[in-house]
Amino acid sequence: MNGFKVLALAAVAGFLFTATPPKAQAQVGVAVAPDCPYGYYDYAPYSCVPDGYYGPEWFTGGVFIGVGPWFHGADDFRGNVDNSFDPKHGYTGASPKVGEKPAAERRDPGLFKGNEMRDGRGHTGGEKK
Questions:
Q1: Whole-angstrom Cα distance, residue 61 to residue 13?
Q2: b/e map of 34-45 (b: 16 or more CB within 10 Å)?
């Protein structure tokens, strides 16, 4: 009977060594930047920002250059933001929805007063104003 136990134990061990866990399927996806009329916050969930959050240097030909994973500016880029339009800083006003178009009348970019310098990856760049 002792030989039978050894043989059974060897069979179970052999079965366990040959069983492999299921292979995980790699998910590779390319996320698409949100289609927001005035840009989007530089942190997930990347919701749309109201007009006046980003300064004019964040736009090229009226097109937002992006932030976070979709940043399309130079490595040494720094731009002004007005973080009073950020919910993390107490903003509770209206924000556009993804896919909305800019308002017919926008804020004058020449009147923009930023209070914080940022790079395109969400890092503050210097002292707050």
A1: 68
A2: bebbbbbbbeee
Report the chain's mean pLDDT, rounded to a whole number. Answer: 83
**116/42 Cα distance (integer angstroms):** 13
Which among 39, 44, 34, 47 has a CA at the least distance from the CA of 80? 39
What is the token pair recorded at 102?
């800019």
The answer to whether 65 and 78 have CB atoms below 8 angstroms apart is no
DSSP 38-80: TBB-SSTT-PBPPTTSB-GGGEETTEE---GGG--S-TT--EE
Give the model confidence (pLDDT) of 7-34 as tens digits: 555 655 555 555 555 555 555 555 789 9
pLDDT at residue 55 tops 90 = yes
Q: What is the CA radius of gyration of the chain?
A: 27
Percent pLDDT > 90 in the chain is: 58
